[in-house]
Amino acid sequence: MTEHRAGFVTFVGRPNVGKSTLTNALVGEKVAITSSKPQTTRRAIRGVVHGNDGQLIVVDTPGMHRPRTLLGERLNDVVQTTLGEVDVIGFCVPATEKIGPGDRFIAEQLDQYPRAKKIAIVTKIDAAGKTQVAEQLLAVSKLRDWESIIPVSAVDRIQLDTLVSELIALMPESPNLYPDDAVTDETLEQRISELVREAALEGVSDELPHSLAVTIDDIVRREDRDLVEVYANLFVERDSQKGIIIGRGGSRLQDVGARARAAIEPLVGAQVYLSLRVKVAKEWQRDPKQLGRLGF
Ligand SMILES: Nc1nc2c(ncn2[C@@H]2O[C@H](COP(=O)(O)OP(=O)(O)OP(=O)(O)O)[C@@H](O)[C@H]2O)c(=O)[nH]1
């Protein structure tokens, strides 16, 4: 009989390499928001993957980068703490882009976390040719020693089972750490606020993505009908950004609301009424007090 194993894994890599998409694909449910904008991920989220002979707890981290704001520094702190505690670190590079200084920088940092076993994951192989994937596997193998190197596609679900088996094999012997039906330990409020943020991120450009934060005032499950009321605030840093988010005649905000509702409804299993207020919190990314208030 094979031993039962359980432990923590985190995926690291440059922003936008597909870490959140991979987490969601492995967990089988949306626990981390994704977007084509770099640095969408802001907090450690645990997704639980239930395998045959073990359990994986996936800790999603923000992309590592050189901090420019207080928010950036706090995000890096989250990454440091997480990496020191996990059993396995999965270093992600997309098959679609040549390895660059950013990847090398992160690969070098991994020596600072001797506790964790390291594997490399070549992501997005659906979007690359066979030769390109092969070349990337070779390039990754030269970066450092890895327990293994696994090419995957989260979008086309290629090799995800292989990745799960490999990760479980690297975990310590342990009974399950989470109940059999657990998918995440994020609260409903945290998950809803992330879904609202994801909806708001779509279609915005430049520095605005970093300026967005969402808080939830209240979630009310109505007893008289199959309806959940969500009262959310969308924070931006400047008045000009408020205008962008709201759009002409409120058109953009309406779209954001519709997208967010569509994402929240399957999560709560009911129709959703979403109240979305846009507020300005001046320069919140640089202000410790405001960061605290916004949950960082
Ligand atoms: N073709 C393809 N695209 C992918 C795949 N995985 C992720 N992507 C795309 O890559 C982009 C970034 O994905 P994310 O999962 O948000 O990346 P991330 O590394 O978590 O990014 P940060 O949160 O910024 O650190 C999105 O547009 C995804 O749709 C994949 O397997 N195949």
User: Which structural class fits the helix and strand makeup?
Assistant: alpha/beta
SSE ordering:
EHEEHEHEHEHHHEEHHEH
Query: Average pLDDT value?
Result: 84
Report the radius of gyration as a whole number of Å. 20 Å
The top level CATH class name of the largest domain: Alpha Beta
Can you count the beta strands? 9
- Number of discrete domains: 2
Q: Give the cofactors and ligands.
A: guanosine-5'-triphosphate
What does this protein structure show overall?
The chain is of the alpha/beta class and 296 residues long. It has 10 helices and 9 strands. The protein folds into 2 domains: 166 residues, Rossmann fold (3-Layer(aba) Sandwich); 106 residues, GMP Synthetase, Chain A, domain 3, CATH 3.30.300.20. The longest helix is centred in the last third of the chain and has 18 residues. The site of guanosine-5'-triphosphate (GTP) has 23 residues, from helix 1. It is a peripheral membrane protein. Keywords: Cell membrane, Cytoplasm, GTP-binding, Membrane, Nucleotide-binding, Ribosome biogenesis, RNA-binding, rRNA-binding.
